[in-house]
Amino acid sequence: MFVARSIAADHRDLIHDVSFDFHGRRMATCSSDQSVKVWDKSENGDWHCTASWKTHSGSVWRVTWAHPEFGQVLASCSFDRTAAVWEEIVGESNDKLRGQSHWVKRTTLVDSRTSVTDVKFAPKHMGLMLATCSADGVVRIYEAPDVMNLSQWSLQHEISCKLSCSCISWNPSSSRAHSPMIAVGSDDNSPNILAKVQIYEYNENTRKYAKAEALMTVSDPVHDIAFAPNLGRSFHILAVATKDVRIFTLKPLRKELTSSGGLTKFEIHIVAQFDNHNSQVWRVSWNITGTVLASSGDDGCVRLWKANYMDNWKCTGILKGNGSPVNGSSQQGIFNASLGSANTSLQNSLNGSSASR
Amino acid sequence: MGGRGKAGPGLRAVRGCGRCGAGAPLTDTVPLQVVPGADPSARQLCFAWGPAEVLVCETLFGRAGTGDGAPSSSCVFVVRRDQDIYIQTLRKLFNESHGIFMGLQRSEEELAGKSRKAQLVQVSKNYRSVIRACMEDMHQAAVSTQDPALQGQYSTQVSILSAMELIWNLCEILFVESATAGPLLLRLLDWVRLHVCDVDSMVREVLSSESPSKHKLFWNVVDVFVLQGRMDEARHLLSKEASANPTSMNMYKILDDLMKKMPVPSLSNTQTLTELELKWQHWHEECQRYLQDGTFASNPHMESICKILLGDEDAILEKKELMTTWYHFLVTRLLYSHPTVKPLELRFYAQSSMDLFLGGESSPEPLDMILMAAFEFEMHQVIKECSIVLSNWWFVAHLTDLLDHCKLLQSHNLYFGSNMREFLLLEYASGLFSHHSLWQLGVDYFDHCPEYGRVYLELHIERIPLSTEQKALKVLRICEQRQMHEQVRSICKIMAMKALRNNRLGSALSWSIRAKDAAFATLISDRFLKDYSERGCFSDLDLIDNLGPSMLLSDRLTFLGKYREFHRLYGEKRFPEAARLLLTLMTAHIAPCSFWMTLLTDALPLLEQKEVIFSAEQTYELMRCLEDLTAGNPDKQKFQEDDIETTKVEMLRLALARNLARVIVKEGTVEGS
């Protein structure tokens, strides 16, 4: 790993989220300054801010891109109790000349009565759908029935989770064998032993989402949650950021063996658990093949985890700040001088030694 | 030869960087990448994965901002994973080894025994020659650059490549060729001669001097030749010295004779190992005799050579500086004490040679451990250790694949990556996919991973930026060849959406036809029809005229195609055909209701031709259509209030009535006659 570039983000307050578009050619940042910025990568690899606008009237927690099949669409969620959908407008030659693009608000989703803590677009095979979750413990699923008209979003489902929600993750599997599924994490920190991860599955018969599982072993506040890309496996892999990093496998049991009317039951195993961040873990996210998990924690580090071919999970790299100020200008290439820098994942993935320490 | 580097320091360099995380608790082998600016004591990092890069940015979790509105100094950092992929000079390595890899996958497995082995050895040699060529380039680059930092980088890279080639060569001898006792030693000698080149410059200096035998390093060079078993060269040098010293002529002659007579294994099968051992024993005793009777006592150099010939460990170890590495020492030792060493005996000699050579003064380097594992025939260990110290997946992926083709790896059945070979190839190919042009090589590697290659390719290829139509077509072709229907559909859909956003309707339509996306084709057809209603002409005629069977993708598209056909017929003055088509569009409900008025208006000029075109029956149909439209339209108000619409309807009624009158007369006349 090496830092190839640094870009001065120029937000007026804390940045809460960065997000790559599907192809890795655009990114979006959002901040407590209530704005979202969009950045485009030019042919020579430089990043330019092509749009910056006020999106909410509170801190913007998350920003995320829709699949490019739906055009250039962003969703954001905020402390101001709303989520919003934005679309880029092609046109105005003036803007183009200045290298700027124009984003318009297509809709504001105002159903929540508390801070909207996460927003995620559903896997594209489900159509243009998004889910939000909020501090009042409700997950809402919206759909735009006409993908050409993003101002029409209908609230399809409201799932009450009973606990303050902090994060959601759609199961990306497009296999017919798997029903749509969404995992919800709660950062409720009152002293209780309630499961802080719940898994909801769509039931074709009732046309509703129903709770399929709760991860009873996770009783501490959960800050982030992420299903891994499926790779055609029969089971699912779920990463959870709580007081440590945990990786679970969820193996669907055959439906007829279960009693709860069409809902899938799962055999759940924890396959890895790392406390290397020493304290709270705030983010977990998988690479595109679901073979590397990145996690970020209170220790100020991003750690990369990878399983080798013998299914042992190990840390294969760490990103850590050095505390020194960054040189003023943006776009400088801060290349790691040594060419022989470690092939970290290679190193650890082949070490057959035991996973967690 | 310029490109030859020293393997040792190279891997030392690798080690230096590879273990940069050393010392930190719990992370002793985990490399650390420092992100400038971020303060780990006060701040955390948020991040996002991209297809090729990771974004990292300083943040504070679980808290809102400071709210003071002061500009934040935070930067977003773009972090890349596979650094070697971006090194320009290594492109040759990636490109050319891809060809060899593909050849190997296609190669005839049926070739049995010797010819198969010869084939595999040749593949191995090809890989090595690519490494060497790359090393040569890198060396040239190092020599020609003025930038000391860059020079340092190139030199490091040269030594890494050199180490890779050294390891690969040994694996080739031991695993691919699996040389047997006898030839094994010859191969190892070649290996040492090729790679121990620290002394080359000394040899060159002495040989090119005016009188080599007077050179102060003369005996060193003779020793080098003897240690490497280069007897002819050693004898040639000695003969020069002999002619300069007539007094000791006899001594030289004896030594020369001993060196000449030394039995060596042959590559052909003309002598058996027993024969060789017998001869060798004989020769050994002869050397022993000369040493004991003090023949060389007057010349310490020659005496030491004789001791070397006898395989005297101390005598050989005295020449440590001339051998530079323990594995040279090992091969020299084998040459003079165990020339018929069997492959499986190597491990004992290797271990003791390393211990003797290092003598507790220094600990083994990673390279030493890798070579040792090879001598121990621990193939798995070799790959593991290489993975730890080398900075790219190229080496382990290709070597493992070759060893797998030699049927040397037993598979490890695991849930992801069917075996080590596939695991490593997947990693290597994934790395290639993070590069804007090398990804095309990655496709072929994924193709040869039976278990997960396809799903990896699917995940990676849909992330290739579709910056131009050409690039999209290239990606599309790859997906189409592999029947990746979902990726084909998605790429076409993305392109269609992009074209539509930019108001390129023709392109949008052809992409959505390719995507077989009926809904989208309908939407774009509507845009075409709307444009036509507004402007009275069609754009992208070429495309619409040549829709062919793809017209059937959506009803609206069918209508668009047929409607355009009507205009063509009309333009070609084929009025009866045009009229029939126009009517069918309404009666068969191909045309959307919203478009009927336009169609009826299009009928006006046909109704007003001199020639009667619509038959009576057709005219009744048209009238019915008009009445359906005006009566059945819930928006009746619209027709009443809109003057233009009302006038149109009136005009149509009039034209239809007149036409009906004319046609009745005409048809009556025809029937009557």
Automatic annotation (TrEMBL), chain A:
Q: Which SMART domains match?
A: WD40
Gene3D superfamilies tied to this protein = YVTN repeat-like/Quinoprotein amine dehydrogenase (2.130.10.10)
Q: Where in the cell is it found?
A: Chromosome, Centromere, Kinetochore; Lysosome membrane; Nucleus, Nuclear pore complex
Q: Does the keyword Cell division apply?
A: yes
InterPro entries membership: Sec13/Seh1_fam, WD40/YVTN_repeat-like_dom_sf, WD40_PAC1, WD40_repeat_dom_sf, WD40_rpt
Q: Which domain of life is it from?
A: Eukaryota
Where does this protein have coiled-coil stretches? none
Any Gene Ontology biological process: chromosome segregation
Whether Signal counts among this entry's keywords is no
Q: Name one GO cellular component term.
A: nuclear pore outer ring
Q: Where are the WD repeats?
A: 8-40, 274-306
User: What SUPFAM superfamilies does its record include?
Assistant: WD40 repeat-like
Question: Which GO-annotated molecular functions does the record name?
Answer: structural molecule activity
User: What is this protein identified as?
Assistant: SEH1 like nucleoporin
Its lineage reads: Eukaryota, Metazoa, Chordata, Craniata, Vertebrata
UniProtKB/TrEMBL annotation, chain B:
Q: Which GO terms describe its molecular function?
A: structural constituent of nuclear pore
- GO cellular component, as recorded: actin cytoskeleton; ciliary basal body; cytosol; kinetochore; nuclear membrane; nuclear pore outer ring; nucleoplasm
Q: Which InterPro entries does the protein's record reference?
A: Nucleoporin_Nup85 (IPR011502)
Q: Which first-to-last residue range defines the signal peptide?
A: none
Main location per UniProt? nucleus
Q: Quick check: keyword Coiled coil in the entry?
A: no
Query: What family is reported?
Result: Belongs to the nucleoporin Nup85 family.
What the protein does? Functions as a component of the nuclear pore complex (NPC).
Give the PANTHER family listed for this entry. FROUNT PROTEIN-RELATED, NUCLEAR PORE COMPLEX PROTEIN NUP85
What name has this protein been given in UniProt?
A: Nuclear pore complex protein Nup85
Gene source species: Taeniopygia guttata (Zebra finch)
Recorded name of the encoding gene: NUP85
